[in-house]
Design brief:
GO terms for molecular function: DNA binding. With 143 residues, the chain is mainly α. It is built from 7 helices and 3 strands, in the order H-H-H-E-H-H-E-E-H-H. The chain has a 3-stranded antiparallel sheet.
């Protein structure tokens, strides 16, 4: 994902203190969105549409790579339902369907760009921790 800058509103909200109690509706929405976006296909579709703009269904599948037609269909439908993707059907034969990120989808991609930057920044530390853990497990007795 590209390193798009965060919006000013998001930056300002991050500077504010957290409220003493989270709104249960917002908390449920956050859990729902994280659950959906944390799956690899949603993130890859977000990235493909961000990089390439509007894509036809088959082009989107190729851009994502190694995704079944069924999984691509399910994922873009869910993204459309959540307002992240706009689906345009052109009345021609054979049917022509385009997918484009909505502004909401673009902003979600920008929000998750922070995870990309964090991983890039801490890549060496994470690799060292994984290697140390694996080395320790090799010498440790089985549980």
């Amino acid at each position: 994902m590209s390193r798009d800058l965060e919006g000013a509103e998001v930056k300002a909200r991050r500077q504010q203190e957290l409220p003493p109690k989270a709104d249960p509706a917002i908390e449920a929405l956050v859990h729902d969105i994280i659950g959906k976006v944390a799956d690899r296909w949603t993130m890859l579709i977000l990235e493909a549409l961000h990089e390439h703009g509007t894509l036809r269904f088959t082009q989107l599948g190729k851009a994502v790579g190694r995704i079944s037609q069924k999984m691509l269909t399910q994922t873009v439908r869910q993204m459309e339902q959540d307002g992240l993707v706009r689906r345009t059907v052109h009345p021609v034969i054979p049917p022509h369907v385009d997918y484009t990120l909505t502004p909401l989808g673009e902003s979600l991609g920008a929000a998750f760009c922070g995870v990309w930057i964090w991983a890039e920044t801490h890549y060496v530390e994470i690799q060292q921790a994984r290697e140390a853990f694996a080395a320790g497990r090799r010498g440790a007795p089985p549980r």
